[in-house]
Design goal:
5 domains; single chain; binds magnesium ion; OB fold (Dihydrolipoamide Acetyltransferase, E2P); seven-stranded mixed beta sheet; alpha/beta; seven-stranded parallel beta sheet; globular; 37% helix; 23 helices; 715 residues; binds adenosine-5'-diphosphate
């Protein structure tokens, strides 16, 4: 057993002798290698390493992924078939035999009043010596009713003193993630040993008054209970402490980041005066919708101050985000600043460039396209002009703009359709002498809990309605026996002059295989269902020029159908394209399906989307059902969020942040709100976490998020 190092120290010193063995510090105790833990042992070390468990500290912070509840103690008369139950009973008889196939079978008959229960153990002959008649035990297992009697195979056994019979209760056992060669019992034992060794060495990161005020258990109380809880209530309290802590630390990091970039950053104030507003709205070929007007006001209010804007604009596909972006960019240009619009792909960048060029054809605004496929000489010339301030508005791809372009006077950066554009990726556009304002746009609405975490330091504007006279998209599930009818319909609409997309199945193996499968699909259609029509093809393995050419041919109507993979081009704008077939739809996420379908909701004709699927699970059924019933991207995003497990689209990791270990953004939404509010207050009062009582929290924030959020040396 572990002895307190402090008392050992005191003993040795009291003898006046020099300290023979140095006393271990708390940090050293926590760093104890797993092989020195009870149950650790050298041959377990590599197994534990696979689980990232190397030290005692790793072990105690390896939170259970679930619990096995043995607290349901009930009389035999109330057993239910197969339901995990605990029961207190007395050993009545023990027998042991060898079955016909050579297995040893130990049977123990237990009695409880007038009821009996038989427990059996296979291939564990020593179990017969485990019990003596008249002994009282607590058994936990799954009862089965066999041959007129309840039976439990391999129950857990806990001996009970006779006087404890009434109060005996089962436990809540931790269930950990395992690796082959290591079982729950072994890891439980190691964890218990690590806890015994370390609990007294744990430092409390929260000041005592804070714990009290927020009803949080101290760490030395909470940690053992997270693993081996006395009861449900203690488990909840213990878990709450760590969930809160994890979310609070994340929110602190985000609040610090925000404080630095927003409150302390310095951007040019770019006010949208009435005169500027009039000039811009005159350029637009349509009236802005009330929704566009509202988000423009929010953006304009941000841009008018010297605090850099950090705003996320979310709006369903086709809601008209580009016009909003163009407006904001022209405000910057009107003030003599540059603005840049970054798209995730070459095709989208070109599309934006075409839109913007057309809008600004009658104006003095100097614009440039900067992408990978622009010829080198031309690009070098653009880069020179941008650095010299001879270009006002730049459209490009993110890959190109990232860190390579030098701006003379960047006032606004707009990032389009970048769902994975988390807090981390933003500070890419640095320039001497001030920060630009940022506007990030996405068509995939972000569930609120995500907006508060991975997008935690962004303000959110939402574009809810579609521009007027938008036609709906009708969506149909097309089962294999309805395919012929669907293609018939597709052909009829093509003959009426409409155009359409065919989205081929998602292939995960490689871009190579995907290109092959889309080519096959193209061949099959060109020689089959769509024989009579002109088809185009777009996939990820084509060069930028080839893609551009295919897109242009489709846009101009030269090709009637575009066969494409899903990876290409969210947000393509071809108003005459009103038909879409999505093959193998169950392989796509709901948000992605809705995005795809958004491409045929652009013009004055209604859209028709045929979703080819044979849903195999309840979940994919529910998803496709939702897709057919709802045309509202926000509603669908919520449904998707509810249907999917946590850690999927929610993955903090996807956004460049370390994964959450115990908190679940979906389940723990209420604690998240609380932690967020508290963290904001905390940082407002002590922006650098500089107070001595916040030292440990500060260290924890830096250790966890310092790098990913580029916090540098806080304070
Ligand atoms: P998204 O939000 O998906 O990026 P876009 O900005 O591409 O949407 O807009 C989709 C289409 O709607 C474009 O063809 C655009 O010209 C048109 N549009 C945008 N705003 C309006 C408006 N206020 N009135 C009419 N049409 C509009
Ligand atoms: Mg768009």
């Amino acid at each position: 057993m572990y002895t307190d190092p402090m008392s050992a120290n005191a003993r040795e010193n009291s003898g006046g002798e020099p300290v023979a063995r140095p006393v271990k510090t708390a940090a050293e105790i926590l760093a104890t290698p797993v092989q020195f833990l009870p149950g650790g042992g050298p041959n377990r070390v590599p197994l534990l390493a696979k689980l990232d468990l190397r030290t005692a500290k790793d072990v105690i912070f390896n939170f259970p992924r679930d619990y096995q509840d043995l607290t349901d103690v009930r009389p035999i008369a109330e057993f239910e078939e197969g339901k995990l139950t605990s029961v207190v009973a007395t050993v009545e008889d023990i027998d042991s035999r060898v079955s016909m196939n050579g297995r040893s079978v130990v049977g123990v008959l237990f009695r409880q009043g007038r009821e009996y229960l038989r427990a059996i153990w296979f291939n564990m002959p020593y179990m017969q010596n485990h019990f003596t008649r008249g002994q009282t035990v607590l058994l936990s297992g799954q009862p089965k009713y066999m041959g007129g009697r309840w039976e439990m195979a391999h129950p857990r056994v806990q001996f009970v003193e006779p006087e404890e019979q009434e109060s005996a209760r089962g436990r809540l056992l931790p269930v950990y993630s395992l690796t082959e060669g290591l079982n729950q019992e072994q890891l439980r034992r190691i964890t218990r040993g690590a806890l015994d060794l370390c609990v007294e060495s744990l430092d409390e990161v929260f000041p005592a008054a804070y714990l009290e005020a927020h009803k949080l258990w101290p760490i030395r109380r909470a940690l053992p209970q997270v693993h081996f809880a006395d009861d449900r209530a203690s488990l909840e309290q213990a878990r709450r402490r760590f969930i809160y802590q994890e979310l609070f630390v994340l929110q602190l990091a985000l609040a610090i980041k925000r404080h630095r970039t927003h409150d302390e950053g310095h951007a040019p104030p770019l006010e949208a005066t009435a005169r500027i507003d009039a000039r811009i709205t005159r350029l637009l070929p349509f009236e802005l919708t009330a929704g566009q007007r509202r988000v423009i006001d929010e953006i304009a209010a941000d841009m008018a101050t010297t605090k850099p804007m950090n705003r996320l604009l979310q709006g369903d596909v086709g809601s008209g985000k580009t016009a909003v972006a163009v407006y904001a960019m022209l405000v910057a240009v009107a003030h003599g600043h540059q603005a840049v619009l970054m798209a995730p792909t070459e095709v989208l960048a070109r599309q934006h460039f075409a839109t913007v060029s057309q809008l600004l054809s009658g104006s003095q605004v100097r614009i440039a396209l900067v992408t990978g496929s622009v010829p080198a000489a031309e690009r070098a010339e653009s880069e020179r002009k941008i650095a010299a301030g001879e270009i006002d508005l730049i459209v490009g791809t993110q890959a190109i703009v990232r860190g390579e372009l030098e701006f003379a006077k960047l006032g606004l950066a707009v990032i389009d359709e970048q769902h994975k554009f988390g807090v981390r990726q933003r500070a890419l556009l640095r320039q001497a002498g001030g920060d630009p304002h940022y506007l990030v746009m996405t068509a995939t609405p972000i569930p609120r809990t995500m907006a508060m975490t991975v997008f935690g330091d962004l303000d959110v504007s939402t574009l809810r309605e579609q521009p007027p006279n938008r036609q709906p998209v009708h969506t149909y599930l097309v089962s294999p026996d309805q395919r012929e009818k669907w293609w018939e319909f597709f052909r009829r609409k093509l003959s009426e002059g409409r155009q359409g997309y065919v989205i081929t199945p998602l292939v995960e193996e490689s871009a190579e295989v995907e290109a092959m499968s889309v080519r096959q699909a193209y061949e099959a259609l060109a020689n089959g269902e769509l024989e009579a029509f002109k088809l185009g093809l777009v996939h990820g393995r084509m060069s930028a020029e080839e893609k551009h050419a295919a897109m242009e041919a489709f846009r101009s109507g030269e090709t009637q159908v575009l066969v494409a993979t899903s990876v290409v081009e969210v947000g393509v704008d071809v108003p005459n394209a009103t038909l879409m077939t999505i093959e193998d739809a169950e392989r796509f996420g709901l948000a992605q399906l809705h995005q795809l379908r958004g491409r045929i909701r652009r013009g004055k004709y209604p859209g028709y989307c045929g979703v080819g699927a044979e849903p195999k699970s309840d979940e994919s059924n529910a998803r496709l059902d939702a897709l057919v019933k709802s045309n509202d991207g926000f509603e669908l995003a919520e449904i998707d969020f509810q249907l999917r497990g946590p850690g999927d689209m929610l993955g903090t990791r996807q956004h460049g942040l370390p994964p959450l270990l115990i908190a679940d953004l979906k389940r723990d939404a209420a604690i998240l709100e609380e932690a967020r509010r508290d963290a904001k207050e905390f940082v407002a009062a002590d922006p650098g976490l500089a107070l001595p009582e916040h030292k440990l929290l500060r260290r924890m924030v830096l250790a966890r998020y310092g790098e990913s959020l580029d916090l540098g040396d806080v304070g």
